[in-house]
Specification:
This protein is of the alpha+beta class and 113 residues long. The protein has one domain. The protein has five helices and four strands; from the N terminus they run H-H-E-H-H-E-E-E-H. 21% of the residues are buried.
Length: 113
């Protein structure tokens, strides 16, 4: 049962296919463009960003939720990780973290820029 919930939440959270180009994911989300796995690896290395899996584990521990996934996005010239977590009540929680510093970012203020 728990495995089915996690798989359902993953399908809902991840939405599109991993091969979807970053430009197609931009949509109307306030200048946010999420990167593919290959682009993420390249940018983590070239911009000296924090490792996504380490931040995913930290966020899961802080919120006492199960880690689902993490993706690197570019919001108005800043790299931000969008971290998806599954709470005990079955709801998916999204946490936004500055990819360079690891500090939490307020999603609303980022979208208003």
């Amino acid at each position: 049962m728990t495995t089915m919930l996690i798989l359902a939440a993953l399908a809902t959270t991840l939405g599109g296919s991993p091969a979807r180009p970053a430009a197609a994911q931009q949509g109307g989300e306030g200048g946010r463009a999420c990167l593919s796995a290959a682009e993420t690896r390249e940018n983590v290395s070239s911009h000296h960003l924090r490792e996504p899996m380490a931040l995913l584990r930290e966020a899961a521990a802080q919120t006492r939720a199960e880690p689902l996934g993490v993706r690197l996005c570019r919001w108005n010239e800043q790299f931000v990780y969008e971290i998806s977590l599954l709470r005990r009540d079955g709801r998916v929680l999204r946490v936004f973290v500055d990819a360079a510093s690891g500090a939490r970012v307020n999603a609303r203020s980022k979208q208003e820029r």
